[in-house]
Design goal:
single chain, alpha/beta, 5-stranded mixed sheet, 4-stranded antiparallel sheet, 10 helices, 9 strands
Amino acid sequence: MPPILSKNPQLQIAMRRGDIDLANKVLAQETILKGGNYPIRCQAHMFAEAEKIREFTLYMKQRYDPSVPLTEKFTDVDTSRIKGKATFRNYNILVVENDLDMYGHFTRRIVSALDSDGRYGGTQVFSDYNLHSCMQLCETGQVDLVLFDWTNPSIYESLMVGGGTHIPGESFGRKDTTLSFDDDGGIYGLTDDGSMFDEDKLREEAERLDIRSLWMDKISAYCLEAGKQPPPYFIFRSGAEYRDISKIISQKLGNSIK
C-alpha cells in the first residue's frame, strides 16, 4: 500500500531535520483530517506509517545531537585517534581517499602529520571514499574539516556524482555521458551526441571539471538542507602539498601554524 502521510512536505522537513515536535504536530493534524476518509484497513496502515515516521525522526534527532560522538553514530567508518596531548580542542576531520589502489595512504599521511604536530591529541580522523557517506557525516554539523585527496585524479568519483553509470551533463561537462565496460574491463564513455571517450580522456575530463569541488558542492547542499553549516575543506592537488599538511589543517581550523 502506498504511503499516506509521508508525502506531506512538512513531515518530510521534520524527518529530514529530526524535528520530533513538528513531526508529532503534523501527524496529529493529518490523522484527524484523513482518518475518517479511509476504510479501517487503510487507517491501520496510516497509523503504522505514523509510527515509522516517528521512529525515523527520532533516529535523525539523535544523528544531529552534538552530545553523541560521531564514533557512536557511524561505527562502520574507519577512524583514527591522534595521540598525545591537546593544545586545541578535539576535532573531527573527514579524510576523503581517492586512489583506491592505495586506500588508506592519504589517511596515514594526515594522521602522521597531526601526530608529529603534537597539538592535536584526541582529534578523530574519519576516513571514507563514498560521496553519500561523506554527506551523511557532514550533515551532522560535527565535522570540523574535510580533506580531499585529488593528487591522482580518477573517473570513479564522477560515477558517484552522477548516481550510477549515467553522468548528467551538469556533473560531467556539457554532455550527458554513459559509462560502459569493454571485454577487457576497461571503461569508456559514450556521450549523447555519439562521441566516445576512452579511460584516459575521461580522466582528463574529470580533472578539468574538478570533480572534488562538485563533491563539496553536493556535501554543502546536503548540510544546508539539514539546517547545518557546511564545514571548511581543502583539496590536495599535488604531492608537494603533503609537506604542509599540518600547516594547512591549522590554517583551515583557525589555529596558529607551527
